[in-house]
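Subject: two folds for Thursday's group meeting

Dear M.,

Sorry for the delay on this. The cluster queue was jammed most of the week, so I only got both jobs back this morning. I'm pasting them in the order they finished. Each block is the input sequence followed by the predicted structure tokens. Could you check whether the formatting survives your parser before we put anything on slides? The first protein is the one we discussed after the seminar.
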Amino acid sequence: MNIAERTLQRIERTQPSIADAHEWVGALQRWKPPENLLALEKPVDYVVEGLIPAGKVGALVAAGGTGKTSLQLSLGVAIATGRPFMGLKVQQGTFVLISSDDTQDDLDGALARVARAMTLTGTELDLVRNKVRLHSLQGLEGEKTFCASPNGAPVSTGLENLIAEALAGITDLRLIGLDTLRQFAGGSSNDEQVVKLTIAGATEVARLKGCAVLVSHHTGKQSFRDGVQDMYCGSGSAAIADNCRFVLLLQSVTWSDVDGLIRRAGMEKGKPLILHSTRGSLLVEPPPPLCLHRDGFYIGRVAGASLSRDQVLDERDRDVLRAVRAGATSKNAIAAKVGGNKQAALGRIDDLESRGHLRNGSPSGSTTRPEYVLTIEGSRFLDAAE
């Protein structure tokens, strides 16, 4: 019996009856808020404070070479040792990474380099040996995808049950990493139904094992603008956003991007990264972006004071005013000088004009495009931070 036949048999065995499929109708009709409703308000349980909720499935999205695997291994080491992850508290326990992207030798070597870069103590190394498990499925025969298409239509393979069986007996499992979405989707991450079934399989793994699951996704886009709607560059993005309970976006940036979010202490090495959480739990707001720096296999958090939302907006306003002071007077010239999302920059120009920080310096009655100049109020606002 081949894989396709076994898959179809499994589907037939697990299909719910008509009665079972409609039980939710009566349950919805009978539902009422519980008497102890206010007692149900409990803090959200996290594997990583404010970032990865326990028992949920999320995606780690980044372009190739950004550092997804190094970040996952750093996360795994933090969970195994109890070290804070980028300054955030973790639940100590076991971390498992199952990869269809890298060989076992490459995974082992990467873990060794991450451990060296993190300068682990002897005790911490022992914890890593006991609490981190890495396994490569590359080159293996058999069922190693959550989705198959035996008759041309995508169906679930039941891989979640094999993973649960492989991890039986681990009582402190905190997080499972699956690398990458494309491989676990059978080589396709552009079909929404395929992605949906793959994430559904990961969600079942989370339910069976009582831990969080993080599915890494390789996007072809190196960066995005000020929004996150275009970060996936297609690739089943709607299914990722709709079916994951949180999405982490790891992005290569410039130091000027970091400076717009944090007052650096000047201790960083290597290249800057920003880790965005684009979705939070239903019960909490998404956390602010984490500013990171990567030096080889070391990824650390940039030391410094984070800027509040109001401070970030003020700094963006000052960027516009600096551009005008430097000689950019038209909207297009100012937006080009500021960089980033053009529409966002144009919006800041209009807002600054309405607040009296900028004014149209063109002659009265002129029909040409506005030429902006700083007002006294705008100069004072800018000079206060210089």
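Second protein, same layout:
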Amino acid sequence: MSGVLWAVASGVGFGLFQVFNRRAVRDLDVYVSTFLQLVVSVVVLGAVVAATGELALLRGAGAGPIVEFGVAAFLHFFLGWTLLNASQKQTGAARTTLLVATVPVFGTIAAAIGLGEFPGWPVAAGVALTVTGVILVSGQHPAIAGGGDRPARWWDVGLGLGAALCWAVSPIFARRGLEGLPSPLLGLTLGLGGTVVVYGVLLAVRRGAGVDHALRQPEALGYKLLAGVLVALSQWARWVAIDLAPVAVVLALIQAVVPAVVLVLAPLVLGRHLERVTGRLWLGAGVITSGSLLLIFRP
């Protein structure tokens, strides 16, 4: 299976994850939601690691790859997932998805600096299109509480863009880690495990704020369980794709697939009162996706 197919599979999984995660995060504290997401993911991937016997690869690996995986996981999961959950809670799944779709812009720049993967002339057009799309989807959005529309606050927009930036930079460290420990599955699981520990400490410092409330939300917890399984498998596919194909291509393909999945399914699964997918959103999605796809081309 090629890196391109792995990337497409990852994009479909991430789209499904964002839809179900939006339903869960509506009733959960952002930090508790992220922690549960991490725990479910590390349990799923840990079981796969145990079944495949890839844990034995650690014997020949030094500390360097593990550190690289840890940095990649901190950026992607600790920071990126926290910002994602916060953005979904504030602006909904559809708009968050489109803001996060700016990953290829950040990723192309990061890959050029960190990995020497320089794009060709389409990068300027791709960046311009993506920025235009962000402006389109950021103009108005439904108020999450109370109904109606309100102008988008730059803080709300910044949450999604911040997640995109974290997700764009993290593959550089993942790729470096894979050079010393060539197992995307094991590397991802190690990084997730370390992040779970850090997040657990954070919740302990917050004295479990939001945990009691979460335990009284069985429906939200069920959606979170499903979302955690989906994102774990999608993240595995993403790391495999990064190991097989150029980072910019992988990020562009994933972010080209995710918006279509979310814009179609979010109103059906979550209800149109929560996810109002307007013509302006579809236009923004098309513009952002076009900019992302331009970044695939190489000189």
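Two things I noticed about the second structure. The first strand starts at residue 140 and ends at 142. The chain is about 80% helix and 0% strand.

Cheers,
T.
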